[in-house]
Amino acid sequence: MSSYRDQVSFSFQDGHKRYRWLLASPAERILATVADAALGALAAAPLLWSVYQMRHTPHHFDVWAHVFLASPLMWGGAVLLSAYVLWQALWLAQRGQTLGKRLLGIRIIRDNGHVAGFFHCLMLRTVVFVLLCVIMIGGTLMLLRLDDNFSVYELIWLPYLASFLMLFQTTDDHRTLQDRFAKTVVVREKMRQEA
């Protein structure tokens, strides 16, 4: 019986050689996302705790004094969260990996086999994709005159639900909406060269 890895691969021809990556499984991609969310929550915890503490201080206490003078935890938390976000963005732009993807040995490449880089990995897959989702959902709500009943942020999960379901498709290299939009594929980290 052949395994998932033996059955599913992504390959491209470059001159006289053929290169092949094994596709990341849906489980690996989901676990990488969960790992990124958990690490992000840990990085944000000091800042969130400090903000929570600040919101529950007595009203006679000067909130701005608490922010600027009495809360090294808040500033430390802000620095920690900023460093985490910057680290994730740099790895994504340079390696096609987040920390979660690195832990699971998967990465993002372009559908032509090249390194995804800053534009495809970070800008198209992350920033532009989210902006388009917000604009499309908001525009649809306005056209249907439902913007009084729903906000964009209550429905932003819909494209991500569609992407989650697309992970399990057996065609088109398990590509999600983000992958299709940015012309990327998520593969195992190691590449195989074939004759």
UniProtKB/TrEMBL annotation:
TM region positions: 30-52, 72-93, 114-144, 150-168
Cell location: Cell membrane
Any single GO CC term annotated in Swiss-Prot or TrEMBL for this entry: plasma membrane
Membrane topology category: Multi-pass membrane protein
Organism of this sequence: Conchiformibius kuhniae
Lineage: Bacteria, Pseudomonadati, Pseudomonadota, Betaproteobacteria, Neisseriales
Pfam annotation, one family: RDD
Domain RDD: residue ranges: 24-183
UniProt key word Membrane: yes
Protein name: RDD family protein
Keywords: Cell membrane, Membrane, Transmembrane, Transmembrane helix
